[in-house]
Amino acid sequence: MSLIILTLLLILLLIFSLFMAVCTIDNFWRTLVARQAPFVPIPQKVIPHIIDAIGIHEKSIVYDLGCGDARVLMACYEKYPTASYKGIDIALIPRMLAWFHLKRIQKPHTISVRKGDFFKEDISDATHIFVYLFPNVMNDLLPKFQRECVKGTRIVSCDFQFQDKEPIEIIDLHRPRHALGRKIYVYEV
To answer: Is the pLDDT reported for residue 34 higher than 60?
Structure first.
């Protein structure tokens, strides 16, 4: 009996190790080769500040571009369940994590996470957009936002800002110098 349990534990450890290796290779590829943002989860302590900065109301359509494990979308949903939430991520592993998280909360119809390249996806129905992306990706997205989003669409970014657009608000969270989630930048199209 104990040999069976030990064998099962070793198999689970092997599967977990392979999963972590795939995550590492995927992040390496997306960061260094494809010049995309890797999956780096937003710290839980920062999420309430992000939700406040987004300014959701009951008819909001909130996009999270590069949504990762969908933690921001789910936190928004918990506070404002009548709004609509759309996550887009190209990477398999973060989308799998999002799927597990959404399954845990019995995925309401107002949240969707889909595979896609957010540069190619239509976001014209967005009223609010959240991003946690590298500066080069932010700057590449700015023309898309200006072209597709209606006037007044609110864009909230954690830690990274646009090079050629001034924020309407900068929220300093007074976190330690090397911590993630130190500042929130709020923009309007």
So the answer is: no
Tell me the Ramachandran region of residue 124: left when phi exceeds 0, alpha when psi lies from -120 to 50, beta otherwise. alpha
What is the tens place of the pLDDT at every residue in 39-91? 888 999 999 999 999 999 999 999 999 999 999 999 999 999 999 999 999 98
CA dist., res. 146 & res. 180, Å (int): 28
* Amino acid found at 104: R
Separation CA 122–CA 132 (nearest Å):
19
Query: d(Cα 148, Cα 125) in Å, to the nearest integer?
Result: 9
Element (H, E) at 143: helix 135-148
CB-count exposure of residue 59 (10 Å: 0-12, 13-18, 19+): exposed
Contact 55, 154 (CB under 8 A): yes
- Are 132 and 49 in contact by the 8 Å Cβ rule? The answer is no
Q: What is the pLDDT of residue 32?
A: 44
